[in-house]
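Protocol step 4 of 5: obtain the predicted structure for the target chain.
Materials: sequence only (see below). No template structures provided, no constraints applied. The aim of this step is simply to have a reference model before the mutagenesis design in step 5. Sequence pasted as it appears in the construct record:
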Amino acid sequence: MKTLQNLTGGVWGDSLGDALLDVVNPATEEVVARLPGGCRADVDRAVEAAVKAQPAWAALPLAERVARVTAWADAVAGHADELAELECREMGKPVGVGRVFIDGAVAGLKASAAQALSYGFEENIGRPDGSCTKVLRHPLGATAVITPWNFPVAMVLGALGPLLAAGNTVVVKPSERSPLSAVRLFELLGLPPGVVNLVLGDARAGAPLAEHPDIRLVHFTGSVGAGRKVGAGTGGLLRRAVLELGGKDPVVVDAGVDPVETAAAVAFGAFINTGQICTSMERVYVHQDIAEEFVEALVEAAGTYTAGDGHDEGVMMGPLSDARQRDTVRRHVAEAVARGATVRAGGVEPDGKGFFYPATVLTGVDESMSVMTEETFGPLAPVVVVPSFEEGLERASRSRFGLAATVYTRDPAHVAAAARMPVGVVWINQWQGGGPERLYEPAGDSGMGATGSTAAYDAATRPASVHIAAGTAS
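Step 4 output (structure tokens):
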């Protein structure tokens, strides 16, 4: 049984702690590897390596840093199939689905690193009296990236591009539930020792990393509860945090759209990756004028999302990540049915090994049910019929979460109204749209800290001004 190691200062080595954790294939329930549980000593060692490496990395010309990050992206692209297979083994994602997201993440890494070449790291502002001010953006130093289990490759690549290109070094702690692909990702590194370090483990590694006094920024993606602890810790240290937390993302389907075509799009947004995406469609509000046809089409579409081992061809949905995740889905469905909801598709777990749950459509739901208020993170599409677009939009906006929302409409006035929803991202007549220019900050309990585009570089740097008197030699 392979035991995974940490990467510290360019050297792979065993943890200084004694605890070991199992990596379980959720399709077979077999243990496929072991990893260290983590400890403060592992974190201290990794942070020390990152602090030591940072000045030399920041001193490299910007174009060289960008070129080195881009070369790493190319190496990852060459091993995308292997990485997708590892993701399937550790968290169940179908290989084909994993490959699509990894390819997208590689493209995003290249684009975000290239953006450094046009970012304003130095701005000169002259005055009529001959004096001037230089506004400089300095790297922060050693930073931390703590990633979730559902996108172990994409989340790391998405966070690291701006941090590295801006001249920071990084300590990464992936989820203990999906470390295999992260380890392979860093085996492909071509960066100087200590620029990127990997610490494995659960909260025994995550908590000391988030609270380390030498870490200048924590980029955390995960649950609301854990995010609150990270934010409290960084706040106490007067350090920065970028927190992307849970979501309960709504969909509003207006009258006038094609109900069958829209139902197919909603099925994809609800069921792809077995609903285990922060921006999965978890609440559906459909106009009564097209509700019957929409629900029938959604039920039919749900039947096409076959669940099984993601290594098998034709499988559209893998298992849920583990028994805990399946228990959450099971609880939400059972509670909704007990309160009067109707299961229109799915809802019955298959026999045998693996943490599988079918694509499920519920009707007759309301906001008194957990399936409409708590993040499910599973293949559920609960549908509410509303008498008007306005009511659908109002109910969709009534949530403690504010990550993203999707609206299907052909009415320009309704598009304008949707743009004011209290979320970080609004997609109109599509889902997961946008490119490197996308910039957003989650609202409510979904997190804090703007990210994407230039905001990622703003977060990765510290602005300082240098005022130079007239007549000073430069």
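Step 4 remarks: The chain has 15 helices and 22 strands. The first strand starts at residue 6 and ends at 8.
Proceed to step 5.
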